[in-house]
Design goal:
The complex is a heterotrimer of chains A (345), B (78) and C (432). Chain A is α/β, with parallel strands linked by helices. Chain A is built from eleven helices and 14 strands. Chain A is elongated. Chain B is 41% helix and 15% strand. Chain B is globular and about 40 Å long. Classes of the chains: A alpha/beta (345), B alpha/beta (78), C alpha/beta (432).
Chain lengths: 345, 78, 432
């Protein structure tokens, strides 16, 4: 089986930072850590037939040349699997390795790379690529090469990989229900016992990565601004004519506020499945403050956009919320809206 | 959702009864709402007082929209 | 406060002229059951028995109760609901083990909507679906209640909760006159401690907000509950009763309050791994952030006053119920108390989103109890016990979902108890 290996300028023996601009080049056989990789592959009738070496800066300085060069190399070499790195904590090397694997993936060739879990390339690529976690420094080189060799052979043979915790790669990020060896209560009691004894334990749900968005520029001139009202309270026209879902909502709806100075109870209702909607049904302004917005229109701010956007914010997956936010943003920007008031329940 | 609106360039003031949760979920401008089922007012107040409260909440939102901020910020209705 | 829990296992149930126990064979009188559930807001009950191994889809469940009765010690089971408010949790209590009473029926939707409607559900006693419930292994006595028009939700709810506890106690009464000794007797006593061991508590969250999601303690609804202390033996004697109508994946039943695996597990290791100190009972889903903060503060304060070294937390419902618990975990950890949380996951259909609606940095020890969102395929069962279609989508006026064939569900919300809130099942999520 034919393996193509990707290394940066340092591991490819071309020099250190001063050689970071080295363009992509192809070398016969194995180089640097690839020699050891090759030895490990030999037992499974696989060999490193060529090594692509590239300076750390080249992929970002000349992205098109880099990408087409890699692609052409793969088309000429027709590898059964591509191995990139290990990149450890080197960010540029990790990103380049991930790109190389992406290109292989687009050509239908399996690939695997290795780097430290905090390498910036991981959060960008873990969903789509097989990434072996390594130490931060090259102290873990031998372990990384062993795992890379083992996985490369499986991938070259087009064998499905086992689960991440068995085969030693980073989870792609999809959580699935399984039957574990013991009831959840038992696992929790064991975890508590371990904590009290000061023993190590492994949480089954890791803490979230905090994602921050840069605040947008403020509304430049509030007095002339066009603002829109959006709500996750699921307040819709009575009878829910467009059948908004009360939970697991992945769609939004749009209703006209044109000419309305108030929301009459009886004409609107909240169909939300996650809170007591009786207050909102008696006085819709408690969730969509149209009366206050009209009172302040023309004085505290310019105009209220006539379209009101609504969804039910319960059980909504983050990805759906993001998509809906993007779609609503597109509508609002098209209409010249400059700021949004969002009410959540 | 408010994070996505901001990401597209629309400053968004979110009125929420659980401001710390909103801030953790990525909202940048959060106005403290009253209670989950009625963030924009209080049905236990008489109508006129409730309307005044609602105006204060909306004004806090407007204030949030017109401020330049560098990090997630909570705005209290005055 | 020492409780002896005496088990009389039931291996077979059949209907007969009288309600009596012969060895492990229980005969049930339809007349006795009909009398037990009688209430102005009920017109009739259909009875059905399902044994383990049968392949049945049971629909529209409001509660599950284990038959128990007190033999000695003060009070009677289900205190405050059946009989006076008298302390329970000591003396001897008999149980019919292996038997569960399921209170079912199509509770009318009276124009309520959103959260506040009886949510229809189902459970499977066989194949894949049985992985998500304890009741593939219990003999299930189904009481399918009929609800006449002309009553309020409060009245239907009262009828449902009383039906379950009355039927349960009526059945357990057979053990008072059998000649046989119980198959086993478990001693439950928190008093025997080993001072060198760490102290642990269980922070037990329940849901109680209105007529559809009500929990009772000594017969009082817990809608206004601020954290309180409960002895685990009180749970064994039915002081905590699930009074809601319908309910989905996150439902806690009376059966689970009686047979809570976290309580059982803490007792099993009492005076060997740790000293079990008691239960902090609290409710979540308060609507104002300050209320959630109060709950958290008081849970942590109770743990501190009881000198806890560790606390296990479980969730009483979905959505922002987790906020109270996370804030309480934060407060406990900051006091040096180690915590573990059992949590369901809400990571979307593909499992690609972050699984919890809210988390704090101090929640470093979490056990996953399964997913509420993952689509699931279930084969058809040999028969359906109850309505052959359940009502979904109340927000559009209700859409019937036929359940008599194989099912491909886009989420697990209608799967009764699937979220496994107190960790009975082996389900959990892993990341691929």
């Amino acid at each position: 089986m034919r393996v193509v290996h990707y290394l940066n300028q340092f591991y490819g023996r071309l020099g250190g930072e001063e050689a970071a601009g080295t363009p992509l080049r192809m070398m016969d056989g194995a180089l640097g850590p690839g020699v050891r990789l090759n030895e490990l592959l030999a037992a499974s009738d696989a060999a490193v037939v060529a090594t692509l070496v590239c300076g750390d800066n080249f992929p970002s300085e000349q992205p098109e040349t880099f990408r087409s060069g890699v692609r052409q190399a793969f088309e000429a070499l027709h590898p059964d699997v591509v191995v990139a790195g290990p990149a450890f904590n080197a960010g540029r090397y990790g990103l380049a390795s991930a790109q190389v694997c992406e290109i292989a993936r687009q050509l239908g060739t399996p690939s695997v790379t290795a780097m430290h879990v905090e390498n910036p390339a991981v959060s960008l690529h873990r969903r789509d690529l097989v990434i072996v976690p390594t130490t931060a420094t090259a102290s873990g080189m031998q372990t990384a090469l062993s795992t890379l060799a083992r996985l490369a052979v499986h991938l070259a043979k087009r064998e499905p990989l086992g689960p991440p915790w068995v085969d030693g790669y980073l989870p792609h990020g999809f959580r699935r229900v399984e039957l574990r060896d013991a009831p959840a209560a038992e696992r929790a009691l064991n975890m508590l016992a371990a904590r009290l004894r000061g023993e190590s334990f492994q949480t089954e749900i890791p803490l979230p990565e905090i994602t921050r968005v840069e605040p947008a520029a403020p509304v430049a001139d509030l007095k002339t601004a066009r603002l829109a009202i959006v709500s996750t309270s699921a307040l819709v026209p009575h009878g829910n004519p467009d059948k908004l879902r009360q939970s697991y909502s992945t769609e939004w709806r749009q209703y006209s506020l044109d000419g309305l100075s108030a929301l009459e109870p009886g004409q609107w209702e909240s169909i939300h499945g996650g809170y007591d909607t009786s207050a909102a049904n008696t006085n819709p302004h408690l969730v969509v403050p149209l009366d206050a917005l009209r009172a302040l229109e023309g004085s505290a701010y310019g105009q209220l956009h006539p379209a009101y956007f609504v969804t039910a914010g319960v059980g909504t997956p983050v990805s759906a919320a993001q998509r809906m936010g993007g779609e609503i943003a597109a509508e609002l920007l098209k209409a010249g809206v400059q700021g949004v008031i969002l009410t959540a329940t | 959702m408010s994070a996505e609106l901001e990401r597209r360039g629309l400053p968004t003031a979110m009125i929420s009864a659980l401001p710390p949760v909103a801030l953790e979920l990525g909202a940048n401008r959060v106005v403290r709402g009253v209670k989950i089922p009625h963030p924009c007012g209080d049905p236990t107040l008489d109508a006129a007082t409730d309307r005044l409260l609602r105006q204060r909440i909306v004004c806090a939102a407007l204030d949030g929209l017109s401020r330049s901020i560098s990090e997630p910020t909570m705005f209290e209705p005055g | 406060m020492r409780l002896e829990l005496a088990s009389f296992p039931v291996s077979e149930v059949a209907f007969g002229a009288a309600t009596r126990l012969d060895g492990s064979r229980l005969e049930v009188s339809r007349h006795d059951m009909t009398q037990a559930v009688a209430h102005p807001a009920i017109d009739g009950v259909d009875l059905e028995v399902i044994h383990p191994g049968e392949s049945v889809r049971i629909t529209q469940i409001s509660d599950v109760v284990e038959p128990r009765i007190k033999v000695s010690g003060s009070g009677q089971v289900f205190p405050g609901l059946l009989g006076p408010v008298e302390a329970v949790g000591a003396g001897r209590t008999n149980r019919l083990s292996g038997l569960a009473v399921l209170v079912c029926g199509e509770v009318p939707w009276l124009g309520a909507s959103g959260l506040f409607v009886p949510r229809d559900n189902f459970l499977d006693t066989d194949a894949r679906g049985a992985e998500f419930t304890p009741h593939g292994q219990t003999i299930n006595l189904v009481l399918r209640l009929g609800f006449p028009a002309g009553h309020t939700h409060e009245e239907y709810q009262r009828a449902v909760v009383l039906a379950g506890v009355r039927a349960a106690r009526t059945l357990a009464a057979v053990t008072l006159t059998v000649p046989d000794a119980p198959a086993d007797v478990v001693m439950r006593d928190l008093a025997d401690v080993r001072p060198e061991l760490p102290r642990v508590l269980y922070a037990y969250q329940v849901q109680s907000q209105g007529v559809f999601m009500r929990t009772y303690l000594y017969g009082r609804s817990l809608d206004e509950l601020l954290p309180t202390l409960v002895h685990p033996n009180e749970l064994a004697d039915g002081a905590l009763v699930a009074g809601g109508l319908g309910g989905g994946a996150v439902k806690l039943t009376t059966w689970l309050h009686q047979n809570n695996p976290i309580v059982d597990g803490m007792y099993r290791r009492h005076a060997s791994e740790w000293n079990f100190g008691g239960v902090i009972l609290h409710r979540g889903h308060y609507y104002q952030y300050e209320d959630k903060q109060r709950v958290a503060l008081q849970v942590a304060r109770a743990a501190q006053l009881l000198r806890a070294d560790g606390v296990i937390f479980s969730l009483g419902g979905g959505g922002n119920n987790i906020t109270e618990v996370m804030l309480a975990i934060q407060a406990c950890e900051r006091l040096g108390i180690k915590t573990v949380l059992l949590a369901w996951e809400h990571a979307g259909p593909a499992g690609a989103d972050y699984p919890l609606p809210f988390a704090v940095p101090e929640a470093v020890a979490i056990v996953s109890t399964g997913s509420m969102d993952e689509p699931v395929e279930l084969p058809s069962m040999q028969r359906v016990a109850g309505a052959h279609a359940i009502r979904t989508r109340p927000e559009v006026g209700g859409l019937p979902l036929a359940v008599d064939g194989p099912l491909q569900l886009p989420s697990r919300y209608e799967l009764f108890g699937d979220a496994n809130p107190v960790g009975w099942q082996r389900t959990g999520c892993r990341e691929y």
